[in-house]
Amino acid sequence: MRSSHALRRQVMSGWGIRRVPAVLGTCRTYHDESFGFRKPREYQFPDYTQTQLVNRAENAPLLRYVDSMRTHGHRAARIDPLDLIHREERYGLDDDSKMYNVNGILWTKRVGTGDEEAWWSLKQIREHLRKVYVGNIAYEYMHSPSKTERLWFSHLLESQSLPSPEDTPLLQVDEEKKRRIHELLARSEVFDNFLQQKFPNLKRYGLEGGESMLPALDSLFSAASLAGVHHIVLAMPHRGRLNLLTDILKYSPAAMFHKIKGGFEIPEELGAEGDVLSHLVASPTLSYEGADHPLKVSLLPNPSHLEAVNPVALGKTRAKQYSLLKTSPDDCKLGDRVMCVQLHGDASFTGQGVVMESLGLSNLPHFTSGGTVHLVVDIGYTTPASGARSSLYCSDVGKMINTPILHVNGDHPEDVARAMDIAFLYRNYFRKDIIVDLLVYRRWGHNELDLPGITSPLMYEQIAARKSVPELYEQKLIAEEVLSQEDISSVRTSYKSYLEEELATVPSYVPSASMLTDQWNSIVWPASVDAVHDPVTGVDRPVLEKVGRASVAVPEGFEIHLKLHRHAKNRLQSIESGRGIDFATAEAMAFGSLMLEGNDVRISGQDVGRGTFSHRHAMLVNQKTEGVIVPLNDELKADGKLELANSSLSEMAVLGFEYGGSWERPNLLTIWEAQFGDFFNSAQVTKWLKQSGIVLMLPHGLDGAGPEHSSSRIERMLQLTNDRYDATSQPTNINIYIAFPTTPAQYFHLLRRQILRNYRKPLVIAGPKGILRSSAAASTMAEIDSGTQFQPVLTDPLTSKTKAKRVIMLSGKVYYELVKERQTRGLDGSVAFIRVEELSPFPFEKLQEALEQYPNAAEYIWLQEEPKNQGAFIHAASRIKSVLAKMRRGDKELAYVGRKESPLPAPGVGKLYQSQQRAVLEAAFAGL
């Protein structure tokens, strides 16, 4: 038997296969070779020879029959353990004894081993095809538009099934592997029975009926390790999670029992409130025989929102390979050392939109991570499939990206292992996604306390009468004389004894947390005394000038759009004069200065290179050739790189992808920019003790654009925070920072602060889209020079502070409209404006300092342009009152000025918007 390494080399390179560059479509594409852009690879399989083409034409009926079996054989395959799938079978030929030359029609030899005639009878052909395509594994690959992939599959499947001693080892399940499969199945059943006995009222979401999931993953991990993969990023929902954790992933059963009994899964002194049992995680290092290195498997946290973790896993997988992106394209082979594996439920795979969004990212040049293996544990929900999806298979959604699909019967764990081996071979060769649909059943319904027989009586009558998957496999191994009854009893008894021992240690168990290791070892716990919350973020002026000039440098002969000449000229003038720095310039200087300090920056969203509001222009496109440059990368030659990841029209998956990247790399400034208004989603960020420095850029500000193009729903973001309510209470370990900057300088400091802090927390920026180019909102170089930093509160520079009778607190662009209106009314000495630039954590101390500058104020107002039930009012009101009480001005009422309550973020009628906005401005100065 050949070694696993030799087999892998044969499959990967020994078939005479040559690799050719991908040819991108010509529709709507840049000639983008900017940092991070990776064109999908394509591989060319040896085409038909002229002799084979002639034979295919001469035997067209046979060719149609063979292709029909390849295409439709899955409909007759034995893949359903409960035999509930309707099968159909069609025959096109009837003379079993007739001989056919199958050269070029049916693959009987390895690729490159000759082009000779091979004569088979119709009976032999039919039996061979049925053996390949109508068994316990069903294949769907003929829908692929790639002839290369179709040929690859048909060659592999049809030649591998031949009973040649030379060919059998590749996908063979030897005796040692059978014993390993049995151990996993038996231990899973013992584990579920043990929990049922000890904790009968526990919802454990066990694996009973789906035990083959464990040998499926074990086989995949082994194949990956032998092929050189060092790290697997694993995403999965709750079904079978505890079985996987305590077995393959080496999670302590004592720790799990401690959690079941009501204990903390993390050290109590950290102050975190924990999560439910079925969301536990592990990151073990595994060893597989034959591999020359260990395999790290990282199971990611996942909420009960089923597939929400999928894009997070993709982002983390790509981020683990970020250093590869700094090498030349020839050296960068994404997926060589890191692989993403995703487990799904069949109902959620069909029903959750984030699945389709994530699949849509898989081959995009700035999002690909080298191919994902998807394992759908088709365990059925309590709703029948007829009410759960409109397709035959739950996996059909994968056909949107032409993904091959393998369906396999979970009652046959050896075939499950083979299916996973084939899936890995495909993924590792083509570096694309593939789906394995594991058809199993759930013995107890949605959970162990469920009574699914009430609504599915016939199905559960069948299930109750069945032997379990481990028992069926044990019968098979006894018949094959691989195991004896004593062997079987020994495996089960020893594992039950182990679980009993672990349960006995629970009273002395003390949880621990392994955080901030490896690349995170320079990061501190945010609540520790070592945390630096407000670092100086200013930069020496020569560096700012260097970066600013580099950001608009254009190579000789590179023709930019005519309107960008003015953009570049204005930027250079503002840098030279030190005044008129707009938001785009401040952003470029923040990015470039961080890059010079060795940090990377990645910003994603729709057309972020240009910017949603055509303001950024960090990516320039040659108007003649459509070639792309990123001036900050090309001119600065910094260690850090800027990746402008123009994304698909997706919110949840793209944000999840960036969130995953931020989990992996603390020195990466990860930004997701929403296109408009409330085009956003959020992620829960505190319960897993995961630090993330992601930035959500959410355009915000009423300007007459209508409901979905005005509001970033600040009120919803603020509701997610754990911000304290009282100025006299101790500051909390805030989970999300939320800011609404009104000047480019403030924006500059916020971006740099994300990296210069020695801890990481998400930052939500309500983007001031209405003032991106406003001269009134511009900043000076002095405001971002060395020694400067972000200011949570900005006081009014125009007002005589002792004369002010009315103090208006607010956030956002409406400030500039108010300043203009105040000047028109000649009230500069009577009304003062205080901008609350950071809403979470609420700046109690800084606001008090600002308010104390107006000792004669008689009125206090919170003003906003959003409706009263939206915006920051609900969050800010009680906190401002707390500050006033602390200042002994609690007798002063906090008045509200703004729009009235509304079900819409903004009106969609222009005249109505104008009249409402005018009313807000009038109310601000009423009575003066």
From TrEMBL:
Transmembrane segments: none annotated. GO terms for molecular function: oxidoreductase activity, acting on the aldehyde or oxo group of donors, disulfide as acceptor; thiamine pyrophosphate binding. Keywords: Oxidoreductase, Thiamine pyrophosphate. Residues 581-774 form the Transketolase-like pyrimidine-binding domain. InterPro entries: 2oxoglutarate_DH_E1, DH_E1, KGD_C_sf, ODO-1/KGD_C, THDP-binding, Transketolase-like_Pyr-bd. SUPFAM superfamilies: Thiamin diphosphate-binding fold (THDP-binding). The keyword GTP-binding does not apply. Pfam families: E1_dh, OxoGdeHyase_C, Transket_pyr. Its cofactor is thiamine diphosphate. GO terms for biological process: generation of precursor metabolites and energy. Belongs to the alpha-ketoglutarate dehydrogenase family. PANTHER family: 2-OXOADIPATE DEHYDROGENASE COMPLEX COMPONENT E1 (PTHR23152:SF4), 2-OXOGLUTARATE DEHYDROGENASE (PTHR23152). NCBIfam families: PRK09404.1. This is Dehydrogenase E1 and transketolase domain-containing protein 1. It comes from Gymnopilus junonius.
